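Supplementary Methods, section 5.1.

A reviewer requested that the exact input to the structure prediction be made available. We therefore reproduce it here, unchanged from the version used in the analyses.
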Amino acid sequence: MSTPLMKAVQSWETEIVSVLLDHGADPNIKDCNGEAVIHHAVYVDRPDIASSLLEFGGNIEDTTKDGLTPLLLALRERKPRMAAYLITHGANLHASDQYLRTTLMYAVRWDCENMVEILLKKGVDHQLKDTFGWSALYYAIMGKRKTKMVIIQHNLLLWRQQNTFTGNQPEDVFSSG
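The structure derived from this sequence is encoded token-by-token as follows.
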């Protein structure tokens, strides 16, 4: 099932989207793939359309059959503009899909250093594991991704901050006669 609103989004018809929403079109109806209209806005990488959908009650956390929120979908589909838009408009950064793959894992698989850095700075846990037992760092290492250095540097920074705040410093094993 595809609604006129979905077709307008898929066709990038911003004005038609607005008219349909003004006349009561439901932005939360799902198609046969379990995707709401906002998911279609992600596919076509149109933050302006997503903005209209959210203004008319579209659910920024709506999930597909596979458990993908619009943000997870944007990361999976490598849509940086849409991912950035969703992040700045309150999307749950800690969302995960049906296999417990997180936003950070998707950003790592895409090898987007900037997005990985943003997610880490916003507190997304890099140590979480999916149902296969893989963490974001493991995806980065096994996939030979550049993002592994971003995660390692973030870990190192956190470790230094923790030890600075607690007063714990590593012992100098060479100075103890």
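The chain is about 50% helix and 0% strand. These observations are discussed further in the main text.
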